[in-house]
Amino acid sequence: xxxxxxxxxxxxxxSAGQWDFLLDGKAAIDRQKCLYRLMTAAVRTxxxxxxxxxxxxxxxxxxxxxxxxxxxxxxxxxxxxxKLIDSFNRLGMLTTRTNNxxxxxxxxxxxxxxxxxxxxxxxxxxxxxxxSKGQADGVRTPHSNDTPLEDKPCTVPxxxxxxxxxxDSMAGRAAALSSSLCSPVVSDCSDDRADAEDEADNSYxxxxxxx
Length: 211
Known about the structure:
By secondary structure, the protein is of the alpha+beta class. It is built from six helices and nine strands, in the order βααβββααββββαβα. The chain has helices at 16-23, 28-41, 67-74, 78-90, 128-131, 188-210; strands at residues 8-12, 47-51, 54-58, 62-64, 94-98, 103-107, 110-115, 118-121, 141-142. Strands 4-6-5-9 form a four-stranded mixed beta sheet. A three-stranded antiparallel beta sheet has the order 1-7-8, with no helix packed on it. It starts with 7 loop residues before the first strand and ends with a helix.
């Protein structure tokens, strides 16, 4: 290990239903890979950066990744990524807000990180039971095309402890996975997002050429 490389351990809690979705069927490894990409991209301190001329501010526990970026990483169609992200939202694992520059994903399954032995907590972690009925339509939230994402103050409490997993039995999770688990939910907004990204990319490229 490089001397300057930090030792990072990720603390996560997933419900039985969320695990079922991640492990079921031929697409299981791709679902896990996508979730891993978002988990490792989530910031541990408040971070600001610019994407195509728009400033984006991320709170602790958020990751920025468009469908295009995730599709390139996964080697698949970005509309497939859109449906997968919508399913993660429906299951309460993420809350995704999008504009025509990127998507900001708030991670609810990530409780925190151990970084070089120091615990950092994710203020956006939500117990699975608390989100099982909390996602109304199971899709990401669209945001204004040209306005930066809303900034809300976020702090990591001092001396906080890693959330503990409930004392419910793990035996049920070892049961055979249902082969009838539905594919990711199809949402019309995924197609609309893809078109919006195309228009934004073409507009940005044209403006750069004129400049």
